[in-house]
């Protein structure tokens, strides 16, 4: 699993790319989310535009990340899902659990608005 982080004041964007299937990068991914929440970054956007494949391990990681964020008083949203990833989330009905945005810009705008409340 490969990812990189973009810091946007009270929001963090995590760009995941290549195959999102678990592996050595998972603990770093989870640590990044916990660290962001500890540093008062209460809105986390997962940019999946670069993901070519996702499996059940990765879905479990996303659910765990969402739960961690919400338990810390934050939120986690998904953005820019490729067709195959959308299909997997639809089949598993997780598209009704996650907030999903067409692109990162829409996700950032929504997160910024929710921080004003």
Q: Determine the structural class based on helices, strands and strand pairing.
A: alpha/beta
Strand order across the largest sheet: 1-2-3-4-5
Helix content: 40-55%
Give the class-level CATH name: Alpha Beta
Give the biggest beta sheet: 5 strands, mixed
Architecture (CATH level 2) name:
2-Layer Sandwich
Indicate the radius of gyration in whole angstroms: 13 Å
β-strand number = 5
In the CATH hierarchy, what is the superfamily? STAS domain
Order of helices and strands: EEHEHEHEH
Number of domains: 1
What is the general shape?
A: globular
Which percent band covers the strand fraction? 25-35%
Integer average pLDDT: 91
How widely separated are the two ends?
A: 34 Å
Continuous helix count = 4
CATH topology: Transcription Regulator spoIIAA
Low-pLDDT parts are none
Written account of the structure:
The protein has 117 residues and is α/β, with parallel strands linked by helices. The protein has helices spanning 25-38, 56-71, 83-91, 104-116; strands spanning 2-8, 11-20, 43-54, 75-79, 99-101. The model has no long low-confidence stretch (mean pLDDT 91).
Per-chain topology:
Layout: E1 2-8, E2 11-20, H1 25-38, E3 43-54, H2 56-71, E4 75-79, H3 83-91, E5 99-101, H4 104-116
Parallel strand pairs: 2-3, 3-4, 4-5
Antiparallel strand pairs: 1-2
